Amino acid sequence: MESRLMATTVGVITNPRSGKDIRRLVAHASAPNDTSRIADVRRLIVGAVEGGAELVLLARDLHGLGERAISGLDLPVELLDFDVDGSGGDTARAAIAMKERSADVLAVYGGDGTHRQVARGWRDAPIVAVAGGTNNAYPQMIEPTVAGAAAGLAAAGGVPLDDLIAYQSLVIDIDVEGIPADLALIDVAVIRGDTGGSPSLWSLDGVEQIFTAVAEPWSIGLSAFAGLVAPTSRTDDRGVLLDLDPSASQRVRAPIAPGHYVEAGLQSVSVVEAEQGVTVRGPAVFAVDGERAGALEDGQWASMTLRRNGPRVIDIRRTFSLAVRRGHFYTEVNEES
After folding, report:
1. 209 located within any domain
2. From CA 237, how far away is CA 226, in angstroms rounded?
3. Contact of 17 with 40, CB cutoff 8 Å
4. Residue 151 lies in a domain
């Protein structure tokens, strides 16, 4: 193996707004606070360094969580300084900055929207996806210390990174009249007659279609409706398209948010293969990974296409198993006579 010319680097990305949307009020989700978020970020950093990271990059945020997280930590951490405005775009800009700094792996702590913004900035980033949002259909629940250590182990290069990837994410690309406009990692909802309101969806009012890249029956959110009638795994090269009608005789009840079930009327259920497009005509509003994200004017059209070129998600168990097999954690202490 060639010697490394640059420090083994893990980028840590969190979104201080993650998990603080209206679904916390209308459902029964737990509510994170800045203190707990800072503690989790600190544990991610400590784990990453213990796993083998020689440098941890942390993004600056408008709430100052990054500065507070590294306060008093005597570890190789660099706080990236770039313009922030408190929007989801900060997360995308953080991913871009970390790619430019040649980060080996990203440890992303947040919900579906946070991970989507990472993909907007660095589409095929190698990531450890840590749940820290509301629905968390994309990331997994795991202790941040362990997640950080997995990122450090993967970045250290003892095993080729490709051998540690569980899957490359299937992404829904949204093109408006042929121009790339957005993407989703989990689902897209097409809403008719939308009157605005909270960006986060917590009801099916006006939702005409749900298009999913992942449809797991144990998920929370819009994709759960598809998962309960036509499940797909994260390695299947197909998605599910639901056409909804409140008066339909076929119905399914699913959790649209933690502790909050609603019923959907199913007009039709279709399987959509990768690279196959689904066309939508305006007027309509798109909700992407659970949040309103864009609109089509009357007469405008858009296509939604599944492509397997999104973030590469690291298999945490495999990463640790291979490290143990290599004796990574085993040391000997020489006893002096």
Report:
1. yes
2. 15
3. no
4. yes
Q: From CA 4, how far away is CA 175, in angstroms rounded?
A: 40
Joined together, the tokens standing for residue 129 give 């996806």
The gap between the terminal CA atoms of the chain, to the nearest Å, is 37
Q: Which two tokens stand for residue 105?
A: 């792996």
* CATH classification at residue 281: 2.60.200.30
Residue 109 token pair = 């702590």
Measure CA 263 to chain center: 26
Residues 105 and 223 in one domain: no
Specify which residues 168 forms β-bridges with: 312
Structural domains in the chain (count): 2
Containing structural domain, residue 41: 9-169+310-325
Is residue 331 situated within a structural domain?
A: no
Examine the domain organization and report whether 14 and 161 are in the same domain: yes
Q: Is residue 108 part of a domain?
A: yes
Which residue, 101, 138, 118, 80, is CA-closest to 7?
A: 101
pLDDT in tens, the chain (337 residues): 344 557 899 999 998 765 444 444 455 555 667 888 999 999 999 999 999 999 999 988 888 899 999 999 999 999 998 888 888 899 999 999 999 999 999 999 999 999 999 999 999 999 999 999 888 999 999 999 999 999 999 999 999 999 999 999 999 999 999 888 899 999 999 999 865 655 677 789 999 999 999 999 999 999 999 999 999 999 999 999 999 999 999 999 999 999 999 999 999 999 999 999 999 999 999 999 999 888 999 999 999 999 999 999 999 999 999 999 999 898 888 776 5
